[in-house]
Design goal:
Blueprint (H helix, E strand, L loop, with lengths): L2 H6 L2 H13 L4 H28 L2 H19 L9 H22 L7 H32 L1 H9 L4 H25 L8 H8 L4 H30 L17
Helix pairs in contact: 2-3, 4-5, 4-6, 5-6, 5-10, 6-8, 6-10, 7-8, 8-10, 9-10
Length: 252
C-alpha cells in the first residue's frame, strides 16, 4: 500500500467525525486524538520492529516484550487501583502468561525462535490479557459491591475469606472468559480474524493462514483462563484485613 492509498483511508475517519458532529455526540476531539495517536504510534512501532527484526538481538526482543508488559500493566491497573498491590499482581500475571506460552511454542518448536514470531505473538497475547484483566477487574468490583452483605454474613458465621468471596470470584472469572469463548464459536463463519486476513491479503496460502490462526485461537483460550484465574486468586486476599474482615471501600 502506498502512502497516497493510506491517506485515502482517512475517509473512514471523516465519516464518524461527520456523524458525531451531525448528531452532536461530542466525540470529534476524541476521534481526532485517537486517529493521530494511532498513526504516530503504529508508524514508530513499525520502524522499531523493522530494526529489531533485522538485528535479531535477544536483548532487543526482551526489551520489546518488557515494554509491552509495562504498558499493558499501567493501562489495566487503572481499573483496579483501589486493590492493594494490583500493579505487581497484573505484571506477574502477564509475565507468567508470556513465559508459559513462549515456553510451549519454542520448547516444542511450534514456531521458530525469531523476533518476528516472538514479538508478534507476544503482542497478541499480552494485549488480549490486558483486555481480560480489565474485564475481570470491572466485573469483580461490581460483584463484590453488590454482594457485600452476603460476604460479610458468611464471614460473621465463621467462613473464611475464600469461602465468602468464592461466588463473586468465580462469576467474575467466568464473565471475563465468556467473550473469548463465544467469539471463537463463530470464527470463520461470522468473521475472518485479523491475522488470517492479513496473511491472505499478503498472498499467503489460505490453508497456511488458517493453521496460524488456529494457533492464535488456542493461545487466546489459555490467555483468557490463566489471566482471569491467576489475577483473581492474587487479588481477592487484598480485600480482607488480618482479622478476615472485608475492607470498606476497597473496590469501587
Amino acid at each position: 500500500m502506498s502512502y497516497f492509498s493510506l491517506a485515502l483511508t482517512l475517509i473512514f475517519v471523516v465519516i464518524p467525525l461527520l456523524l458525531s458532529k451531525t448528531l452532536q455526540l461530542g466525540l470529534e476531539r476524541d476521534t481526532i486524538v485517537a486517529t493521530i495517536r494511532s498513526i504516530i504510534q503504529l508508524l514508530l512501532v513499525g520502524y522499531v520492529l523493522k530494526f529489531v527484526f533485522d538485528s535479531e538481538s535477544l536483548l532487543f526482543i526482551f526489551l520489546m516484550v518488557a515494554l509491552m508488559i509495562g504498558a499493558a500493566t499501567q493501562n489495566a491497573r487503572k481499573k483496579g487501583k483501589t486493590i492493594k498491590g494490583i500493579t505487581w499482581k497484573i505484571a506477574i500475571t502477564l509475565i507468567f502468561i508470556e513465559v508459559l506460552t513462549q515456553s510451549i511454542l519454542l520448547g516444542f518448536k511450534i514456531v521458530p525462535p525469531t523476533a518476528q514470531y516472538i514479538i508478534s505473538i507476544s503482542g497478541m497475547m499480552i494485549g488480549n490479557a490486558m483486555v481480560l484483566a480489565i474485564l475481570f477487574l470491572n466485573r469483580f468490583a461490581a460483584e463484590v459491591t453488590s454482594h457485600r452483605d452476603e460476604t460479610e454474613l458468611i464471614l460473621s458465621l465463621g467462613g473464611t475469606p475464600k469461602q465468602a468471596i468464592r461466588r463473586q470470584l468465580l462469576d467474575a472469572m467466568k464473565a471475563s472468559m465468556i467473550p473469548t469463548i463465544e467469539s471463537q464459536k463463530t470464527i470463520g463463519l461470522v468473521q475472518l480474524p485479523g491475522m488470517m486476513s492479513g496473511q491472505i491479503i499478503a498472498g499467503a496460502d489460505p490453508v497456511q493462514a488458517v493453521q496460524f490462526q488456529l494457533l492464535i485461537i488456542f493461545l487466546l483460550l489459555t490467555t483468557a483462563s490463566v489471566t482471569s484465574i491467576m489475577l483473581g486468586f492474587l487479588s481477592y486476599p487484598s480485600l480482607f484485613n488480618e482479622r478476615m474482615q472485608l475492607l470498606k471501600g476497597n473496590l469501587k
